[in-house]
Amino acid sequence: MNSTVVTYLSQSNEFSAVVKWLTTHLGFDATSLVTFVIFAVASLIVVGALATIGGLGTYAERKISADLQMRQGPNRVGPYGILQFLADGVKMILKEDIIPANADKFTFILAPFLCMVGVFATLAVVPFSSGFMLADLNVGIFYLVGMASLVGVGVFLGGYASNSKWSMLGGMRGASQIISYEIPGTITIVSIVLLAGGLSLKTLISGQGGLPQEWYLFHNPFAFIGFFVYFISALAETNRAPFDLPEAESELVSGYHTEYSGMRFGLFALAEYIEVFVVCGVAVALFLGGYKVPFDLGTGQILVDKLGMDGMIAKNIGQVLELGSFFTKTFALYYVVIWVRWTLPRLRVDQLMTLCWKYLTPIALFNLLGCAVWMYAFDGKSIYSIIFNSAAAVAGNH
Amino acid sequence: MINLGSYLAISFALFVCGILVMIARKNIIAMLLGIELILNASALNFAAYTKFTNNNLDGHIVSLFIIVIAAAEAAVGLGIVIRFFQLRESIHIDDAATLQN
Amino acid sequence: MFTNTLFLLSALVTLGGAVAVVYSQNLMHACIYLLASLFGVAGLYACIGADFLAATQLVVYAGGVVILMLFAIMLTGGTGNNINRYGLEKVAAMGNKKTYFFAGITAVIFSLVILKILANVLKAQPASVLAANEPTVERLGTILATDHILAFEISSILLLGALIGAAVISRPRKERHD
């Protein structure tokens, strides 16, 4: 199996000890059994952790918006109101589940689950650290783009099935927005794939380093522009403000989930917050160095050499550092997403489409061409190394 | 279990379903659904033959082009359907029987 | 073991979706079943190590074709059977017993022809050991840009033509003033 959680854990002594113990007691080779159990547990951990992050996302949204508007925000449930999302979840589960009489029942029930499946399936390839990834597919980023487009189908069906004008308009806007902004986003991803030379997220990250000048963000000017193109498209694909036209409350009540109540609405909201996390994680992996930490701390080699630590312990410390690096960058981007939402006003529909087709798509195509030319002209070197090398040459190559 | 025969059987079933949809339906969009099924059946065949004969990826290329053609066909076909609907206010295939007006 | 389970699931989803497309009387539902069937085909690709094809299938069909179909269904009046402007007698848009009967006969004829062709393959079970699945992206890219470069370029022209053609065809025309 191609999963990096298992390959990481199988380096340790305990893994082989457990396998040996089970093999002697069960009477067959237990390697695949242990692999399966580890894989299942890791998947459960990822799904649970990300659901919690999605829940905390709603809390963060309210707290940060309150902060930006000089209010208090939720502060009653738990310390600093941090348990507010649990209270919201309980409220949603206990609410009555209403299905409109004239709704298309099958589609109505299916739509939130399509959104959920689309988002949770992308989690399989999100690189949390070099040892903690559920699956290192060699078409990773492509798979992620394909699975994320299921969300568009879910949004559209949610709007259509409700049999309500507002939902219909919201769903239509949502679907057209998602498939339009997929184009600049995907082209930008392709330009980074060009720099890295592989579709697997591990390959994409391994071309970068821990320090900012080694990131693809500062690799060349085109990648720098590309980051902003990708970030804007990601905002639009996740229906976040200033592109939250599908759920524009001043014109469409609540958009495609107007008719949804209770936990079905909750699933839509949860899918949205987790998708924001996923696209921020992808932006970090593509442009901001992913899980890389500076100075070989990630593999733990430096700890073994300098401090004489045990290999596995040093590796574990490296993994924790890598997790910290990835989550710090991702949450910083998450903060930016929320910050943007509470700062900028909403666009009009025609402005939205103009921005996508007249500005972002040509810029993304230009970036793709620019990255290709850069790779050909400068042999794939980053702008930092070119400047550094020429400066060293001027200084006499000491 | 995974052998050429099972893949050919699956693609055969997909193809027959596509033919059924295409002939039984009188709605143009529903007929396009049937065409998608047929195109998928053929693409699956190419990929399966590549794997189970000599494994030199030429079949994958043909499958890729089939997917490309399916996308182009869907775009143009649905454009024609929408234009036809603007003209006739119907997407019934029998309404497309006249050459003029 | 794992691959076999994946294969069985994908085959089930594919065939179930295809059969549901045939029997569903609601166009919207038929479209969703088609999506399920296409996902099953992606799984089948994954089973024989065609990783890039599987991902392409997901991207093109889930993200493009199915949403396009849903849009077209919605823009052309949803799932209802349209009434005929000319008063001629028409069969229902989603088919009736007569059309299903003729479709069944056609399908049986096609099946017989295809089964005659397939009979040799289905009878002969080659027990050869299959090559292990390996990443195909790099090899695909290489042969796409060398051996199949002409087809690649032609498909790009085809896509450009489709893009412009679709935009031109479905563009709303100005009302004639007469």
Notes on the protein architecture:
The complex is a heterotrimer of chains A (398), B (101) and C (178). Helices cover 68% and strands 0% of the residues of chain A. With 398 residues, chain A is an all-alpha fold. In chain A, helix 4 packs across helix 12 (262-287). The radius of gyration of chain A is 23 Å and the shape is globular. Chain A starts with a helix and ends with a helix. Chain B is an all-alpha fold. Chain B has one domain (4-97): Helix Hairpins, CATH 1.10.287.3510. Chain B is built from three helices and no strands. In chain B, helix 1 runs antiparallel to helix 2 (28-52) and helix 2 (28-52) packs antiparallel against helix 3 (58-88). The radius of gyration of chain B is 17 Å and the shape is elongated. The mean pLDDT of chain B is 84. With 178 residues, chain C is mainly α. Chain C folds into three domains: 1-80, NADH-ubiquinone/plastoquinone oxidoreductase chain 6, subunit NuoJ (Four Helix Bundle (Hemerythrin (Met), subunit A), Up-down Bundle); 93-122; 136-172. Helix content of chain C is 70%, strand content 0%. Chain C has helices spanning 2-23, 27-47, 51-75, 97-123, 137-145, 149-169. The chains are: A mainly alpha (398), B mainly alpha (101), C mainly alpha (178). Chains B and C meet through helix 1, helix 2 and helix 3 of B and helix 1, helix 2, helix 3, helix 4 and helix 5 of C.
